[in-house]
Amino acid sequence: MASLATNTERCSSPLGMEDKSILDSAITASSEWDINHGANNARIYHMAGGSRKGAWSARRSDKEPWIQINLGKIVEVTKVGSQGRQEAAQWVTKYKVSYSTDGHHFTSQNQEYFGNKDQNTLVINDLIQSIKAQYVRILPQEWFQVASMRVELYGCVSSDCELTVVFFLFFFGEEPVDGGYSAWGPYGECSKQCGGGEQTRRRTCTNPPPAHGGKNCAGLGPELSTRECNTQNCPIDGGFSNWLEWSDCSATCGGGSRARSRKCDNPVPQYQGKNCVGLSLETEDCNEEECPTNGGYSAWEPYGECTKTCGGGKQYRERTCTNPPPSAGGKDCDGLGPSKTSRECNNQDCPVNGGYTTWSKWSECSAKCGGGTRSRSRECTNPTPQYGGKDCSDLGPKTQEEDCNKDGCAVNGGYGPWGSWGECSITCGKERGIRTRVKSCDNPAPENGGKDCSGLGPDSETKPCVPLLKKCPVDGGWGEFGEWSKCPVTCGGGEQIRKRYCNNPKPEGDGKKCEGDQQETRECNTNKCEPEWRPVGCFMNTVRALGQILERVGSKSSISARYAACTSAADNEGVTLFGMDDRRCWTGEKAESTFSKYGTSDQCLDARKVPLSGGEWNKKGCYINKGPILALPDSFDDTVENYQGKENILEACTKKAEDSGYKVFGVDDKNCWADKSGKNKYDVYGESSECRKGSGSEIDGDMFVYRFEQRKSNSGTDDTYNGRMKQ
What we know:
Layout: E1 3-7, E2 13-14, E3 27-29, E4 56-57, E5 67-83, E6 91-100, E7 107-108, E8 113-114, E9 123-144, E10 148-156, E11 163-165, E12 197-202, E13 224-229, E14 256-261, E15 281-286, E16 313-318, E17 340-345, E18 372-377, E19 399-404, E20 433-438, E21 460-465, E22 494-499, E23 519-524, E24 533-540, E25 551-552, H1 559-573, E26 578-579, E27 584-587, H2 591-594, E28 611-612, E29 615-624, E30 634-637, H3 646-660, E31 664-667, E32 672-674, E33 702-710, E34 720-721, E35 724-725
Parallel strand pairs: 24-29, 26-31
Antiparallel strand pairs: 1-9, 1-11, 2-10, 3-5, 4-10, 5-9, 5-10, 6-7, 6-8, 6-9, 12-13, 14-15, 16-17, 18-19, 20-21, 22-23, 24-33, 25-27, 27-30, 28-29, 29-33, 30-32, 31-32, 31-33, 34-35
C-alpha cells in the first residue's frame, strides 16, 4: 500500500519528466488520441515536432482519463506542475491525484486541483499532503476542448527517518516477510537500429513477494535497468547540393547552349551510405530566337491613273518595305523615306453643261369647275453652258401645261319617297313597342360638294305598336354547384357529391328546361389505409424475452421522444412487435411469439396511444422476457435509463422502434426490446404482473409490450389481421 506523509524538510526538486531521466516507457495513459498524441508527449515544456503533437491527449470517448508516471522507486512527491497543449488550444482546468507503491492498488487524495487556463503557462500546485509512492496518476476532471496535458512532479528521494508517519499499521498473526527481487529478465529489443539506442530489462519483487506487512523491494534498487545498444554510426546516403547558376549562353541569337553543375556534398556519403543518384552536370539550349534583319524598300511602282480628267488631278505611286522585309526585331523602313509619292495631272479647264432653274409658279386655271388648264416655265441659267458644255435641250421642256378643276360642278341632294313600316320592336308581353319607316337622300343624291338632305327634315319617323304574344317564354338556366359532401371514409377510397338547381333563371312560358346532370361525383381519400402501432402490454424481460436491441433511446428526454424513436426504428427494420424499457427498444427474431414467455408485468409506464401515419401503437400487456432464449432478444436501445420519467422512456422506445421498422417492442427501465424477425413471440414465457405504468424492469426480467396496428377505415373495414400488420 502507499503512504501519506508530511516532510520535515520541504523538498521540491523536479523528478525527471523535463530532463527525461524518467524513460518514455515509464509514462503510460488510460488512452491516447492516436500515436502522435502519445503519453511520452506529457513531459513539461515538450514541443511539437514532425508528426508528434505538443502534449498527451486522451481520446474524446475516454470519460475518466489519466496519465501515470512510474518513478522507478519510492519517492516523496510534494508538488505537481502542468501545462496545456503547446500548439493547440487544449488544456485541463481541474485534476485529481492518486498514487501507489505497487502500480495496482491506488489511493486518491480526493482533492481537486486547479489546472491551466491557456496552452503554455506552467501552473504548480502544492499537494495538500506530500505522498510517498512509486506510481503517481494525474486524473483530469474538467478540460477545455480535449483532455491534453504536459506535467512535472516535484519532490525528493527520502529515507524513512526523514518522514513523520501519520498512520500506524498493526498486524496480528504471522511475522512480516520482506520482498526480494527475482533474477533480471532478458534485455528487450534495441530502440534504434544504429546511432545509439536503449535496451531495457526488468525484475519483479516476487523472490519472495512481501507479505504480512513486510517491506517491498523499493529499497533494493530499481525494478528496471537500461543499457546502450547499436552505437555504431548510421549510414549516411549522399545528397546533391543545389544547382550552381547557369553559365553564359554561347550565342546571343540564332541558338546556343549553356550548362550548370552540382556536387554530391549535401551530405557527403559516409559509413557505407549510397552515392548520389542523378546527373551532376546538365546543359540546355538558349537564345534560340532568330537574329534581327533590317528592312529595305523595293523599287517604285508606276504612277497610277489621274484622279480627274480635267481641272487638275493627282497621280500616285508606291514602294514596299520588302527588300528585304524586317524580321527578328530588325528595323522597318521608316528612316529610309516615304513609301508613297504623288504628282499633278489634267490641269485644263473642264466643260460646263447648262442647267435649268427651278419651275415658276402655276398660272391661274382657265375654269372654276368642269375642267380647265394652267402652265409654268423655267430658264437654262443654272448654270449657263460654258467651255463647250451642253445646253438644256436634253434636260426636258422649258414649259409645262396641265389640266385643272376637273371636278364637276356641285349638285344638292333631295329626299325620295317613304319606305314601308318595319316590325314591332316588342314581340311579346304587355308593353307597347314602336314601328319605324325611313326615306333616302337620293332624289337626286348630292354630288361634287353639293349639300346633303339634313336641312330638308328627318330621314325617319316612328309610331306605337302592340306585340302579337301576350306572355314571353323564358329558358331555364343552371345555378352554381353547391359544396362537396363530406367524404364518408378517411382512407381506402370514398365518394363525394354536389348538386345544382335550374333556377338561374327558372323556365317560364314555353321556355326550355335546363339540360345536363343536376349532380356530379368524385373520389375522395383514396390513400391506402396504413398500418399502425398498438401497445400490447407489459411483459417480463429479465433474461430477454426480447433480446435484440432495436434502438438505444436513453438520451431522449421524454417518453414521447423515446416512443417515436422505437416505432421509427421498428418501421425501418420491418419489425412488427417490439418492447420498450427506459433505455432501449427491444425486439427479436421471433418477437411476436416470445415477448410474453416470461409472463406479464405491471411495472411498465402507463402507455398512451400515439397516433402515427395510418396506425398507432397499442398495448399488448406485461410479459416475462427472461430464459435461455429471450422472448424479444434484441435490445435496440440500452440507454433509456438516462431519460427522466417513464413516459419519456416509452416515447424514446416508440420513436426508435418506428425508425428501425419494428412493429412490436417491449419496454423495461433500461432497454427497449424487439425481435428482428418480427415474429409474434413476445408472450412465449407468459404474462407478468410486475410492470409499472407501461414499462417493465430489467432486473425483474419483465417488459411492457407494444404492437403497431393498422387503423380501421371509416367505412367499417378492418385492415388488421390477428393483431399483425397486413402486408
